[in-house]
Amino acid sequence: MNRAAGAGAAALAVITAPIVLVVALLGGLSAVAAETATGGVDATKIPPLARELLPDITAITTATCPELPPLWVVAEVAAESSWDPTAYSSDRNGGAAGLYQLNEANWVAAGGAPWGASPPPADADVLDARRHLELAIPFVCANLRAAAEHLQATEKPTSALDGMLVCHIAGCSRVTGSATGIPVPGEAGCDRTCADLVTNYLDRVHSLVAQYSANAGPVSVDDLPAPTPFDGVNALCTAVDPTGGRCLTPATRHAHDEIVRAFGPPGPESPIRSAACWDEHAWNPDSDHSRGQACDYFPDTAGRFPEGQELQNGWRLATWLRTHAATLKVKYLIWQGRFWSPDTPDADGWGRPYTGGGIYDAEDATGGHFDHVHASFEITDG
């Protein structure tokens, strides 16, 4: 298999059913309209070929599929081929080629020329980067629209963009035949290997979306009130945890109350959708959660990579906590795969890369702290 075949090509080698181009009605487009507000692409963070072709991607999506953010095109192609236009992976269906790793049947259905050989010859249009995007983006868009219509009609919780990813990696029948739109083992003809491939593929694309997003950085908090200083005494887990846990240290409870004062109480209409503080965290005996010294704040649904306004809301909270770290006795913050403490020098804009400490998967939405801001607070005498 070609080095750059990527996660998508590996999946195609196992899931042998071809990806079917589904011709969708346009009625489902309203379901994805709100999902396009994912912010722009940070051109300094994407592969060189993606940077070169970003104007083409923007023009193609604007003309043919405005509900597909260019950011997601860049991320999915990176997951599929690592932005190698000559990438090829062989399997018993004839293999998959090009930036989006399409098999020959799908490439022809998208309007491309048959390959005539496996792997395709060097002059095959499937290996031409611009031609590939010109045909593949509308092909992928058809799956996005089909997924949007189905998910809206059935009220399944999966987003249309995630439905598009499932269609691409495993076939749209996995969306329609599963309870949520993302198959688990035993659903829609998907065994454990199939379900794991789908989950890993979604996680990989989400991670790349977060990595390439132009919104991935601190934002202004000048409009938010400054917190009042903590002036309590040193004590261990004696304050009530308003999120339902056993207890909090006074400094942690004070910081939580100040967050609520600045951002409002957690809830579906709040910049902070939910919060969780004390937790036993049996798998991590060094966790500050089990000491009542930490809280997690989710700007969107747990387990989901936040985008658009939700991503901005998370950055607002992280920036506010960092700005007022001394006042709130902040020990450290983890957010968007980055770790920051008052003693941590910045690298690439904000803190340093978070590795997971050998306990957490740093590329997972929750393990990498992409879906929540983790805030730990010092034990202090006031």
UniProtKB/TrEMBL annotation:
Residues 246-358 form the ARB-07466-like C-terminal domain. Pfam families: VldE. This is ARB-07466-like C-terminal domain-containing protein. The lineage of its organism: Bacteria, Bacillati, Actinomycetota, Actinomycetes, Pseudonocardiales.
